[in-house]
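ARCHIVE CARD
CATEGORY: sequence design from structure
SOURCE FIELD: tokenized fold
FIELD CONTENT:
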């Protein structure tokens, strides 16, 4: 007989949400302890900015986790949302909507981002798969997504120019907690971003389409043998990517009020940094990474000035890669064990 007392006890592991929350609490605690209320305000601003970064980072993670390639059009989808919303609003097409015109404009912007994402899917995956077999085994989708980035960006430049434009919202309410002032749009953005990521997590873990996506992430050929219609499931990835990038673009537009054809470039690089920092392929890693990048950016501006942001963020990423190559959450090999 075996001695049951000698059996190894199962290891206790914290779930992803608990680790992400712990990272945030530790950052806030350290910042307040060192710098007091001034730094606390910067940390709060960083958390709000990090909510946008984490949403885009999750979009990157979803694509690279399921389809095994880095989708370069995601920053452009982010930009399209803001520019299309400003375009339809400034041209007076939505005057019939009254005070809700700005909100309808943002919905139209998100819808355009989803349509653009489906166009990318049509020509980077569906067409190339028919021509070259399993397109996830080639660099062609990555290069073609980069081509779509340049095409969409230059179309916007032709239509609206390169100048920064002002997107006005009919409110500017603030909420004061002690000496910390929070903008209502910032709070709403943080809530919407967390809700969007939570909804995506639920879809991946609890629904039939989510199980199909995770099966494709493991092995597309096995997914076909199990009866998964890959040609119908893959567009769902691009729809979700368009929604996430679009929501992030809408939140950025409302919070900062400025849109331009280049607004996605900076956010895209920060989101990639967040994804790598948290661990490629881990959704909760992307969330924690986005928050860390947002806080690091605001603190860097506070201490070293605006020109230090890129150095701080990417220096932090390099340190994490050296000390923990798989990121904070230990992402697994691309295409295996994802989601």
């Amino acid at each position: 007989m075996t001695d049951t007392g000698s059996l190894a006890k199962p290891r206790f592991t914290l779930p992803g949400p608990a680790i992400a929350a712990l990272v945030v609490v530790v950052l806030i605690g350290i910042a307040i302890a060192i710098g007091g209320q001034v730094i606390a305000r910067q940390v709060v601003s960083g958390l709000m900015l990090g909510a946008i970064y984490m949403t885009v980072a999750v979009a990157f993670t979803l694509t690279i986790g399921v389809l095994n390639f880095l989708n370069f059009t995601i920053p452009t989808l982010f930009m399209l949302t803001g520019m299309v919303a400003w375009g339809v609003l400034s041209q007076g097409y939505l005057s019939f909507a009254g005070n809700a015109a700005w909100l309808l404009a943002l919905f139209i912007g998100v819808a355009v981002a989803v349509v653009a994402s489906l166009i990318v899917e049509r020509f980077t995956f569906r067409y190339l798969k028919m021509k070259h077999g399993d397109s996830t085994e080639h660099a062609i989708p990555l290069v073609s997504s980069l081509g779509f980035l340049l095409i969409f960006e230059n179309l916007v430049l032709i239509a609206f120019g390169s100048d920064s434009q002002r997107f006005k919202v009919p409110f500017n309410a603030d909420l004061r907690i002690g000496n910390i002032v929070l903008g209502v749009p910032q709070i709403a953005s943080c809530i919407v971003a967390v809700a969007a990521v939570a909804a995506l997590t639920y879809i991946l873990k609890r629904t039939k389409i989510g199980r199909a996506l995770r099966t494709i992430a493991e092995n597309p050929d096995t997914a076909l043998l199990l009866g998964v219609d890959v040609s119908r499931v893959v567009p769902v990835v691009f729809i979700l990517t368009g929604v996430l990038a679009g929501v992030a673009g809408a939140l950025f537009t409302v919070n900062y009020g400025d849109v331009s054809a280049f607004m996605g470039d900076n956010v895209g690089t920060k989101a990639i940094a967040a994804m790598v920092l948290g661990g490629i392929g881990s959704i909760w890693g992307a969330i924690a990474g986005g928050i860390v990048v947002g806080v690091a950016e605001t603190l860097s501006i506070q201490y070293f000035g605006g020109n230090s942001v890129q150095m701080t963020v990417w220096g932090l990423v390099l340190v994490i890669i050296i000390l923990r190559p798989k990121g904070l959450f230990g992402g697994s090999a691309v295409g295996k064990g994802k989601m």
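CARD ANNOTATION: Residues 92 and 101 are 9 Å apart (CA to CA). The chain has a mean pLDDT of 80.
SHELF: design records, drawer C
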